[in-house]
Specification:
4-stranded antiparallel β-sheet, about 50% strand, mainly beta, about 290 residues, Neuraminidase
Length: about 290
Protein backbone atom coordinates (compact mmCIF):
# COMPACT_ATOMS: atom_id res chain seq x y z
CA UNK A 1 0.00 0.00 0.00
CA UNK A 2 1.32 3.44 -0.94
CA UNK A 3 0.40 6.58 0.93
CA UNK A 4 -0.25 10.20 0.10
CA UNK A 5 2.39 12.78 1.00
CA UNK A 6 1.22 15.92 2.84
CA UNK A 7 3.11 19.17 3.42
CA UNK A 8 3.52 20.25 7.04
CA UNK A 9 5.70 23.34 6.60
CA UNK A 10 8.22 24.79 4.17
CA UNK A 11 11.52 25.22 6.03
CA UNK A 12 15.19 24.23 5.79
CA UNK A 13 14.69 20.96 7.72
CA UNK A 14 17.54 18.54 7.10
CA UNK A 15 18.15 16.09 9.95
CA UNK A 16 17.44 15.32 13.58
CA UNK A 17 13.63 15.05 13.60
CA UNK A 18 12.43 14.58 17.19
CA UNK A 19 8.82 14.71 18.35
CA UNK A 20 8.33 16.03 21.91
CA UNK A 21 4.79 15.21 22.94
CA UNK A 22 4.53 17.32 26.09
CA UNK A 23 5.58 20.41 24.14
CA UNK A 24 3.74 19.54 20.92
CA UNK A 25 6.91 20.39 19.01
CA UNK A 26 8.87 18.76 16.22
CA UNK A 27 12.58 19.55 16.52
CA UNK A 28 15.05 19.38 13.63
CA UNK A 29 18.46 20.52 12.43
CA UNK A 30 18.66 22.74 9.38
CA UNK A 31 20.57 22.22 6.16
CA UNK A 32 24.04 23.80 6.28
CA UNK A 33 25.20 25.93 3.38
CA UNK A 34 26.21 24.00 0.26
CA UNK A 35 29.87 24.90 0.77
CA UNK A 36 29.66 24.00 4.49
CA UNK A 37 30.93 27.42 5.57
CA UNK A 38 27.71 28.12 7.49
CA UNK A 39 26.79 25.41 10.01
CA UNK A 40 23.36 23.99 10.70
CA UNK A 41 20.85 25.49 13.12
CA UNK A 42 18.57 23.74 15.62
CA UNK A 43 14.91 24.67 15.23
CA UNK A 44 11.44 23.36 16.01
CA UNK A 45 7.98 23.51 14.50
CA UNK A 46 5.39 24.39 17.12
CA UNK A 47 2.03 22.73 16.52
CA UNK A 48 0.35 25.28 18.78
CA UNK A 49 1.24 28.43 16.84
CA UNK A 50 2.01 26.62 13.53
CA UNK A 51 5.38 28.32 13.12
CA UNK A 52 9.11 27.56 13.12
CA UNK A 53 11.35 28.76 15.97
CA UNK A 54 15.15 28.71 16.30
CA UNK A 55 16.96 27.75 19.51
CA UNK A 56 20.55 27.74 18.16
CA UNK A 57 21.27 29.63 14.93
CA UNK A 58 24.90 28.54 14.46
CA UNK A 59 25.40 25.10 15.98
CA UNK A 60 28.50 22.93 16.10
CA UNK A 61 27.20 21.35 12.85
CA UNK A 62 24.41 19.53 14.71
CA UNK A 63 23.03 16.61 12.72
CA UNK A 64 21.08 13.71 14.23
CA UNK A 65 19.11 14.11 17.45
CA UNK A 66 16.92 12.01 19.72
CA UNK A 67 14.88 12.47 22.88
CA UNK A 68 16.79 11.67 26.06
CA UNK A 69 15.47 9.06 28.49
CA UNK A 70 14.14 11.72 30.87
CA UNK A 71 12.04 13.27 28.04
CA UNK A 72 13.29 16.72 29.09
CA UNK A 73 16.45 16.88 26.99
CA UNK A 74 17.61 16.40 23.44
CA UNK A 75 20.69 14.33 22.70
CA UNK A 76 22.50 15.91 19.76
CA UNK A 77 25.12 14.39 17.47
CA UNK A 78 27.34 17.37 16.69
CA UNK A 79 29.69 16.76 13.78
CA UNK A 80 32.06 19.53 14.80
CA UNK A 81 32.90 22.61 12.78
CA UNK A 82 36.39 23.66 11.68
CA UNK A 83 38.55 23.40 14.82
CA UNK A 84 35.64 22.70 17.17
CA UNK A 85 35.54 18.93 17.78
CA UNK A 86 32.45 16.83 17.27
CA UNK A 87 30.58 15.54 20.29
CA UNK A 88 27.34 14.26 21.76
CA UNK A 89 25.65 17.06 23.66
CA UNK A 90 22.55 17.41 25.80
CA UNK A 91 20.12 20.33 25.44
CA UNK A 92 17.55 21.17 28.11
CA UNK A 93 14.13 21.54 26.47
CA UNK A 94 13.00 24.16 29.00
CA UNK A 95 16.04 26.43 29.11
CA UNK A 96 17.89 25.30 25.93
CA UNK A 97 21.06 25.05 28.03
CA UNK A 98 23.65 22.92 26.21
CA UNK A 99 26.28 20.69 27.80
CA UNK A 100 28.80 18.35 26.22
CA UNK A 101 28.57 14.70 27.30
CA UNK A 102 31.43 13.14 25.35
CA UNK A 103 33.78 14.51 22.68
CA UNK A 104 36.62 11.98 22.36
CA UNK A 105 37.60 8.32 22.60
CA UNK A 106 40.88 7.35 24.27
CA UNK A 107 41.98 10.96 24.09
CA UNK A 108 41.36 11.31 20.36
CA UNK A 109 38.65 13.56 18.86
CA UNK A 110 35.80 11.96 16.95
CA UNK A 111 35.46 12.16 13.18
CA UNK A 112 31.98 13.73 12.90
CA UNK A 113 29.22 12.12 15.04
CA UNK A 114 26.16 11.71 12.85
CA UNK A 115 23.23 9.85 14.44
CA UNK A 116 22.29 9.06 18.05
CA UNK A 117 19.73 6.67 19.59
CA UNK A 118 18.67 6.53 23.26
CA UNK A 119 18.17 3.36 25.31
CA UNK A 120 17.15 3.24 28.98
CA UNK A 121 20.52 3.92 30.59
CA UNK A 122 22.84 4.40 27.64
CA UNK A 123 22.86 5.75 24.12
CA UNK A 124 24.43 4.74 20.82
CA UNK A 125 25.92 6.93 18.13
CA UNK A 126 27.73 6.64 14.82
CA UNK A 127 30.93 8.44 13.89
CA UNK A 128 31.53 8.48 10.11
CA UNK A 129 34.06 10.81 8.49
CA UNK A 130 31.70 13.05 6.53
CA UNK A 131 33.19 16.15 8.15
CA UNK A 132 36.63 15.55 6.67
CA UNK A 133 35.44 14.64 3.18
CA UNK A 134 32.96 17.50 3.08
CA UNK A 135 35.67 19.92 4.15
CA UNK A 136 34.48 21.27 7.51
CA UNK A 137 36.56 19.07 9.85
CA UNK A 138 40.21 17.99 9.95
CA UNK A 139 40.95 14.30 9.54
CA UNK A 140 40.72 12.30 12.77
CA UNK A 141 43.16 9.65 13.96
CA UNK A 142 40.18 7.50 14.93
CA UNK A 143 38.66 5.05 12.46
CA UNK A 144 34.98 5.49 11.73
CA UNK A 145 32.97 3.69 14.39
CA UNK A 146 29.85 2.82 16.34
CA UNK A 147 29.82 3.76 20.03
CA UNK A 148 27.83 3.10 23.18
CA UNK A 149 27.86 5.47 26.14
CA UNK A 150 26.79 4.21 29.58
CA UNK A 151 25.20 7.17 31.34
CA UNK A 152 25.36 5.56 34.79
CA UNK A 153 29.10 4.87 34.72
CA UNK A 154 30.06 7.60 32.21
CA UNK A 155 31.93 4.94 30.22
CA UNK A 156 32.29 5.05 26.44
CA UNK A 157 32.65 1.83 24.43
CA UNK A 158 33.47 1.27 20.77
CA UNK A 159 31.16 -1.43 19.43
CA UNK A 160 32.95 -1.68 16.11
CA UNK A 161 35.28 0.17 13.76
CA UNK A 162 35.09 -2.23 10.82
CA UNK A 163 32.19 -0.40 9.17
CA UNK A 164 32.84 1.67 6.05
CA UNK A 165 30.45 4.56 6.76
CA UNK A 166 28.40 3.90 9.93
CA UNK A 167 25.35 6.11 9.60
CA UNK A 168 21.72 5.66 10.71
CA UNK A 169 20.81 3.80 13.92
CA UNK A 170 17.52 2.54 15.36
CA UNK A 171 16.60 0.44 18.39
CA UNK A 172 14.08 -2.37 18.64
CA UNK A 173 11.13 -1.85 20.99
CA UNK A 174 12.66 -4.12 23.64
CA UNK A 175 16.04 -2.37 23.23
CA UNK A 176 17.80 -5.70 22.70
CA UNK A 177 18.65 -5.13 19.03
CA UNK A 178 20.37 -2.21 17.35
CA UNK A 179 19.92 -1.63 13.62
CA UNK A 180 22.81 0.09 11.86
CA UNK A 181 23.02 1.44 8.32
CA UNK A 182 26.44 1.24 6.67
CA UNK A 183 26.48 3.58 3.69
CA UNK A 184 29.10 1.69 1.71
CA UNK A 185 28.19 3.87 -1.27
CA UNK A 186 30.16 6.78 0.20
CA UNK A 187 33.58 6.97 -1.45
CA UNK A 188 36.82 8.76 -0.61
CA UNK A 189 36.82 10.78 -3.84
CA UNK A 190 34.47 13.41 -5.19
CA UNK A 191 31.53 13.39 -5.59
CA UNK A 192 31.77 11.06 -2.54
CA UNK A 193 28.82 8.93 -3.63
CA UNK A 194 28.75 5.80 -5.77
CA UNK A 195 25.14 5.11 -6.85
CA UNK A 196 26.20 1.66 -8.08
CA UNK A 197 27.24 0.38 -4.66
CA UNK A 198 24.96 -1.59 -2.35
CA UNK A 199 24.30 -0.46 1.20
CA UNK A 200 23.88 -2.68 4.22
CA UNK A 201 21.62 -2.72 7.28
CA UNK A 202 23.20 -4.63 10.17
CA UNK A 203 21.65 -5.93 13.36
CA UNK A 204 23.61 -5.98 16.59
CA UNK A 205 22.36 -8.03 19.54
CA UNK A 206 23.08 -5.99 22.65
CA UNK A 207 24.41 -7.20 25.98
CA UNK A 208 23.09 -5.83 29.25
CA UNK A 209 26.37 -3.94 29.75
CA UNK A 210 25.96 -2.19 26.37
CA UNK A 211 29.69 -2.67 25.74
CA UNK A 212 29.71 -5.57 23.29
CA UNK A 213 27.75 -6.44 20.17
CA UNK A 214 28.27 -8.63 17.12
CA UNK A 215 27.01 -7.25 13.79
CA UNK A 216 25.07 -9.46 11.40
CA UNK A 217 23.88 -8.46 7.93
CA UNK A 218 20.09 -8.59 7.60
CA UNK A 219 19.59 -6.78 4.31
CA UNK A 220 21.63 -5.46 1.40
CA UNK A 221 19.88 -2.60 -0.35
CA UNK A 222 20.23 -2.62 -4.15
CA UNK A 223 22.15 0.35 -5.59
CA UNK A 224 19.06 2.45 -6.22
CA UNK A 225 19.21 4.96 -3.41
CA UNK A 226 20.96 6.37 -0.37
CA UNK A 227 19.75 5.25 3.06
CA UNK A 228 19.76 8.05 5.62
CA UNK A 229 17.06 8.14 8.30
CA UNK A 230 15.91 4.85 9.86
CA UNK A 231 13.47 4.08 12.68
CA UNK A 232 11.40 1.32 14.23
CA UNK A 233 7.73 1.63 13.28
CA UNK A 234 4.75 1.05 15.54
CA UNK A 235 4.29 -2.48 14.17
CA UNK A 236 7.94 -3.38 14.75
CA UNK A 237 8.93 -2.89 11.13
CA UNK A 238 11.91 -0.88 9.94
CA UNK A 239 11.17 2.34 8.05
CA UNK A 240 13.93 4.20 6.24
CA UNK A 241 14.60 6.83 3.60
CA UNK A 242 16.19 6.09 0.23
CA UNK A 243 16.54 9.26 -1.86
CA UNK A 244 13.02 9.95 -3.21
CA UNK A 245 11.50 6.89 -1.51
CA UNK A 246 10.20 6.00 1.93
CA UNK A 247 10.78 2.28 2.42
CA UNK A 248 9.88 -0.43 4.93
CA UNK A 249 10.93 -4.00 5.66
CA UNK A 250 10.71 -6.51 8.50
CA UNK A 251 13.33 -6.63 11.24
CA UNK A 252 14.67 -9.74 9.49
CA UNK A 253 15.15 -7.78 6.28
CA UNK A 254 12.17 -9.37 4.53
CA UNK A 255 9.14 -7.89 2.75
CA UNK A 256 10.94 -4.83 1.39
CA UNK A 257 8.25 -2.38 0.26
CA UNK A 258 7.95 1.23 -0.87
CA UNK A 259 5.55 3.37 1.19
CA UNK A 260 5.93 6.41 -1.02
CA UNK A 261 7.92 7.33 -4.12
CA UNK A 262 8.25 10.97 -5.11
CA UNK A 263 9.67 12.72 -8.14
CA UNK A 264 13.39 12.41 -8.79
CA UNK A 265 14.09 15.91 -7.48
CA UNK A 266 12.68 14.95 -4.05
CA UNK A 267 15.22 13.76 -1.48
CA UNK A 268 14.02 12.38 1.85
CA UNK A 269 16.64 12.78 4.57
CA UNK A 270 15.32 12.10 8.07
CA UNK A 271 12.12 10.65 9.55
CA UNK A 272 10.20 10.54 12.84
CA UNK A 273 6.98 8.90 14.03
CA UNK A 274 4.34 10.78 16.01
CA UNK A 275 0.62 10.21 16.53
CA UNK A 276 0.13 7.89 13.53
CA UNK A 277 2.12 10.15 11.24
CA UNK A 278 5.47 9.54 9.60
CA UNK A 279 7.28 12.87 9.27
CA UNK A 280 10.10 13.31 6.74
CA UNK A 281 12.51 16.14 5.98
CA UNK A 282 13.50 17.11 2.43
CA UNK A 283 15.94 20.02 3.08
CA UNK A 284 13.27 22.56 2.08
CA UNK A 285 10.22 21.26 3.94
CA UNK A 286 8.77 18.78 6.41
CA UNK A 287 6.20 16.38 4.96
CA UNK A 288 4.18 13.55 6.48
CA UNK A 289 2.28 10.38 5.66
CA UNK A 290 -0.85 9.32 7.55
CA UNK A 291 -0.04 5.73 8.46
Amino acid sequence: MKYRLHLLVETDAHEGLVWVDWQQRLYFTSKPSNDYTTPSAIRYFDFKDKSVHTIIERSNMANGMCLAADKNHLLVAEQGFNNNPGCISRINLNTFYREIIVDSFKGLPFNSPNKVAQANSHFFFTDPDYGYYQGFRPQSDLPTGLYSYDEQSSQLYCLGDEFIVPHGVALSKNQETLFLVDNCSITKEKPFYDPNHEQIIFTLQLSCESSTAQPETIIEIPPTGFIDGILMGENSQLIFTSLNKLMTCSTQGQNLQCLFEGSEDLNFVNIAMAEERLYATTDNAIHYLEI
